[in-house]
Amino acid sequence: MSILGYLDMALDAPEDHPGQHESFLRIAQSNAEKLLSLVSDLLSVSSDSMGVHPQRMDLMDLIGMCVASAGPRAKSRGVDIVNEATRSLWLTADPGRVTQVLDNLLSNAIKYSRPGDTVTLRAWETGEAVCFSVTDTGIGIAEEDLPKIFTRYFRSDSVRESSIPGVGLGLGIVKRIVENHGGSVTANSRPNLGSTFTVTLPKGAADREAEGSVGPSL
Ligand code: ADP
Q1: Residue 158, C-beta contacts closer than 8 angstroms, at least 6 positions apart
Q2: Which residue among 37, 101, 112, 167 has the greatest number of ligand 1 atoms within 8 angstroms of its CB, and so is best to mutate?
Q3: Fewer C-beta neighbours within 10 Å, C or N terminus of the chain?
Q4: Ligand 1 center to residue 168 CA distance, Å?
């Protein structure tokens, strides 16, 4: 409704809204971006889109691309992104799915930060696994909410009452993708101080077709 309403106004005669056309188009664009992210989340939870098709990939390249594409959004919110993942880390994983994980974690880190906050990406390896983390100095998560954040449609009360957009699907998708790779994801957080999400992926994930319906954990 908001996209169509603002596009209608942008199409009105210029004298009806003098000097406002660009701002109408920008609002329509920002709402179209939110709609795109909602649709892609909903498509991801549909049963046939969660297969894993691994290939050799360098995590550093993927993180670099995700950081670059999140840059404009972070800048417009006054949030700094620091990318410390500057060393090649090779693994066998599905690059499209790992990008989805990174995009979700990075977009949350920016969304739940305040102007002046910082988001830091790190990556390292252990014997059999490659790990990465997304840390923000944002609003944080209450202790009682932490066990629930990976559940489908969960949003904390404070976030629900705020104007921060979202439907509560992103972290469930993250968990499912990571577990389909044979990996794990954890969250640590302190209210008002920030959060760290850490993903561990085995260096060699198995090829895996999409499963049937989405289970109760997501
Ligand atoms: P959404 O962001 O669409 O609400 P998610 O599944 O990505 O859904 O996240 C679920 C909830 O977890 C969010 O609504 C928010 O309460 C909390 N959350 C996730 N990431 C962060 C973060 N980086 N900082 C603070 N809260 C977060």
Answers
A1: 139, 142
A2: 112
A3: N
A4: 7
b/e map of 192-218 (b: 16 or more CB within 10 Å)?
eebbbbbbbbbeebeeeeeeeebeeeb
What pTM, to 2 d.p., does this model score? Answer: 0.84
pLDDT of residue 72: 85
DSSP 206: P
pLDDT value, residue 123: 98
User: Tokens 């994980």 sit at which residue?
Assistant: 101
Ligand 1 neighbours, Cβ below 6 Å, are 108-109, 112, 136, 138-141, 149, 154-156, 159, 166-172, 195
- In the predicted model, residues of the chain with pLDDT beneath 50 are 212-218
Residue 57, pLDDT score: 96
